[in-house]
Recover the amino acids of this structure.
């Protein structure tokens, strides 16, 4: 049996081997400690790097899931990805994603009959941008108006402009079914304030609408200025094919 004095003299880790490759530890002298046997290979360092990457992947996946959830995409578009699309304007979508930069008024205006993939394509663009780290929000335009007007009651803790600024924080706003909302004097003023803020804030937007809705909006008195702002913030892309509820898989 070794004495305490004899044990102290035994170099730390002497005779130990790497659990990964089996190589014996090599001696290294440290000031005030003496000889310490350390790994003679890079297995431990590689393992640490792999573990850090694993943790980062888990974090990134959790962050991605939260951002997708926060985007509020429609239930029937869950699982849809741009790489599976074959619908109209697919090349426009790919180019938009590739050249996307926040706060550039870089937007798209999808116009076409009901059911021919405008919304699905807009959502696919949003998902790809989320995967690139951007924040995206999907909302039916009439719901956006109701959200803003909820600030006048007790259902929303924010005031009108605070709610506008919350929406404007997103890198991309997707407004679905633009033009179906009903406009009265108060609503017209609220939308004007909202659109003007997005324009001044250089927000990026994607709008989907039907041709008849576009024509309806054009007939509303005092709406021309707002409509013009939306046109300045977007490039119109028409969907000409007859209605089908989803793009081809």
């Amino acid at each position: 049996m070794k004495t305490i004095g004899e044990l102290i003299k035994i170099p730390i880790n002497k005779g130990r081997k790497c659990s990964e490759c089996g190589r014996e530890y090599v001696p290294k002298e440290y000031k005030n400690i003496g000889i310490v046997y350390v790994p003679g290979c890079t297995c431990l360092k590689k393992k640490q790097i792999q573990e850090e990457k694993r943790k980062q992947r888990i974090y990134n996946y959790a962050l991605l899931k939260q951002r997708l959830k926060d985007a509020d995409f429609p239930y029937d578009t869950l699982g849809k990805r741009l790489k599976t699309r074959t619908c109209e304007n697919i090349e426009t979508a790919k180019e938009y994603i590739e050249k996307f930069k926040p706060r550039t008024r870089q937007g798209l205006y999808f116009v076409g009959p009901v059911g021919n993939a405008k919304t699905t394509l807009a959502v696919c663009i949003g998902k790809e941008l989320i995967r690139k780290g951007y924040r995206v929000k999907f909302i039916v335009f009439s719901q956006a108006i109701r959200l803003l007007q909820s600030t006048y009651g007790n259902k929303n803790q924010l005031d009108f402009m605070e709610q506008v600024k919350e929406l404007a924080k997103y890198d991309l706003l997707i407004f679905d079914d633009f033009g179906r909302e009903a406009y009265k004097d108060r609503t017209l003023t609220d939308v004007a304030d909202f659109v003007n803020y997005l324009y001044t804030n250089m927000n990026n937007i994607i709008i989907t609408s039907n041709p008849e809705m576009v024509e309806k909006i054009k007939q509303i008195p005092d709406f021309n200025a707002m409509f013009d702002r939306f046109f300045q913030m977007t490039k119109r892309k028409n969907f000409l094919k007859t209605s089908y509820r989803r793009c081809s898989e």
